[in-house]
């Protein structure tokens, strides 16, 4: 089975351009069972005011129909605001399934509500736990932090974790992020797919660096930093025995 990491630059508020980019990237995927896009790929990461502006979230939701029509034969998982939720929407051949973010960051609480539903995405014989951004907080079980979403999803016995994010760049952030995600792989003994938003290094916002961790908790495939990329990955790589991360860090 093959999946695709679609690391794209989603511009805040530019729904038409973002949708065109999503469709183009989905068409670049080669015989992939699932093309995965970043958090809020349709809307971009907007201010609370833009999300609250009349009709904006409705516009984002309606754009999903265009993506579904243009990518009917390709399974896509796309970050998009849906109603009162920050969501990841799976679409394939008329099917549509919505996965909602549960652990919201402070600014998101002005806009979105947390999910109260736990379910998996099943494609063929694989079951995926779909999480969004800070759903993967608290890998160290600190009682003063949020409960990790995977604590709940593990009761459904997923095979692979997916996290779509809009994680910003920063000094040592690539290393810190990689170690934070690795803790989830080590704790739950499942491989993990992470897809991040990206922009140019000059913009100094989102750095990309999408990656896949295998069962041994090392990065077995990765996209570049500060560049858009469509990366096809055969899931056989998850059983790789490598003990060195493929991904290297960047300097600002």
Tell me what you see in this structure.
It is a single chain. With 252 residues, this protein is of the alpha/beta class. It has one domain (2-239): Carbon-nitrogen hydrolase (Nitrilase/N-carbamoyl-D-aminoacid amidohydrolase, 4-Layer Sandwich). It contains 5 helices and 12 strands. The chain has helices spanning 15-28, 48-52, 56-70, 149-153, 173-188, and strands at 2-7, 34-36, 76-82, 85-92, 95-100, 121-123, 126-132, 160-165, 192-196, 211-213, 219-222, 229-234. The chain has a 6-stranded mixed sheet, with helices on one face. The chain has a 6-stranded mixed sheet with strand order 6-7-8-9-10-11. Helix 1 runs parallel beside helix 3 (56-70). The longest helix has 16 residues, at 173-188. The N and C termini lie far apart (36 Å). The model has no long low-confidence stretch (mean pLDDT 95).
What's the quick description here?
The chain is α/β, with parallel strands linked by helices and 252 residues long. The chain is built from five helices and twelve strands. Strands 5-4-3-2-1-12 form a six-stranded mixed beta sheet, covered by helices on one side. It has a six-stranded mixed beta sheet with strand order 6-7-8-9-10-11.
């Amino acid at each position: 089975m093959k999946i695709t990491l679609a690391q794209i630059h989603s511009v805040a508020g530019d729904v038409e351009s973002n949708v065109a980019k999503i469709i183009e990237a989905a068409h670049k995927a080669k015989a992939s069972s699932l093309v995965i896009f970043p958090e809020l790929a349709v809307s971009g990461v907007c201010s609370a005011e833009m999300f609250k502006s009349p009709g904006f979230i409705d516009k984002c939701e309606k754009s999903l129909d265009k993506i579904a029509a243009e990518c009917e034969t390709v399974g896509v998982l796309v970050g998009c605001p849906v109603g009162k939720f920050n969501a990841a929407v799976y679409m394939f051949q008329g099917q549509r399934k919505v996965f909602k973010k549960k652990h919201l960051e402070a600014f998101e609480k002005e806009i979105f509500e947390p999910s109260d539903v736990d379910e998996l995405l099943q494609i063929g014989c694989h079951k995926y736990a779909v999480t969004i951004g800070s759903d993967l907080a608290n890998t160290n079980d600190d009682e003063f932090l949020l409960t990790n979403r995977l604590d709940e999803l593990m009761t459904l016995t997923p095979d692979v974790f997916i996290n779509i994010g809009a994680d910003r760049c920063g000094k040592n952030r690539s290393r810190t992020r990689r170690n934070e995600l690795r803790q989830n792989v080590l704790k739950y003994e499942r491989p993990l797919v992470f897809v991040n938003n990206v922009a140019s290094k000059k913009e100094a916002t989102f750095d990309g660096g999408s990656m896949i961790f295998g069962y041994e908790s090392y990065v077995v495939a990765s996209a570049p930093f500060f560049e858009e990329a469509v990366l096809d990955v055969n899931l056989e790589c998850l059983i790789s025995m490598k003990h060195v991360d493929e991904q290297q860090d960047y300097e600002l």
